[in-house]
Amino acid sequence: MLLDGRRANSCLVFAVAAEGREIRTVEDLAQEGALHPLQRAFLDRDGLQCGYCTPGQLCSAAGVLAEADRGWPSRVTEDVAAGIGSAADLDREEVAERMSGNLCRCGAYTGIVDAVLEAAGASPAEGGRE
């Protein structure tokens, strides 16, 4: 889930700790009946198989894109002090690192990374802006 716009594991957050905070789940990504670009990209890029991990993957991916747009670096960001320009500047290594806490028992990781890059406006083939 997204708690005040930041990624959080819903199973580890006490309800009382979420009182008065903005809670968004995968159901909140679609707007007015239209799929969120991440949801569309997951379908187009085969970012899901059994679907068990998909809600968490989608919420985490939404958080990843927001973090990148805020310039937050990751462990693999080349210049941690400078951060990252925007989500469109993500590459495969950045996405894999940022999504590494989400496990997929089917192994759809390649499709998931491709989907996140596509939704970010980056090139899924190479990562980073075309």
Write a structural description.
The chain is mainly alpha-helical. The chain has a single domain, classed as [2Fe-2S]-binding domain (DNA polymerase, domain 1, Orthogonal Bundle), CATH 1.10.150. The protein has four helices and three strands.
Helix content: 25-40%
| Name of the CATH first level | Mainly Alpha
Unreliable parts: none
End-to-end distance, in Å? 30 Å
The shape, in one word, is globular
Global mean pLDDT: 92
Strand content: under 5%
If strands are numbered along the chain, what order do they take across the biggest sheet?
Answer: 2-1-3
Second-tier CATH architecture: Orthogonal Bundle
> Main β-sheet, in a few words?
3 strands, antiparallel
Structural class: mainly alpha
Radius of gyration: 14 Å
Element order: H for helix, E for strand: EEEHHHH
CATH homologous superfamily name? [2Fe-2S]-binding domain
Fill in the CATH topology. DNA polymerase, domain 1
- Strands, count: 3
In the residues, how many domains can be counted? 1
Q: Helix count?
A: 4
Which features characterize this protein?
130 residues, mainly alpha, DNA polymerase, domain 1, 3 strands, 2 iron, 2 sulfur cluster binding
Task: Please sum up the structure shown.
Pfam families: Fer2_2. This protein is mainly α and about 130 residues long. The chain has one domain: [2Fe-2S]-binding domain (DNA polymerase, domain 1), CATH 1.10.150.120.
Which SSEs are present, and which pair or pack?
Blueprint: E1 2-3, E2 6-7, E3 23-24, H1 37-44, H2 54-69, H3 92-98, H4 109-120
Antiparallel strand pairs: 1-2, 1-3
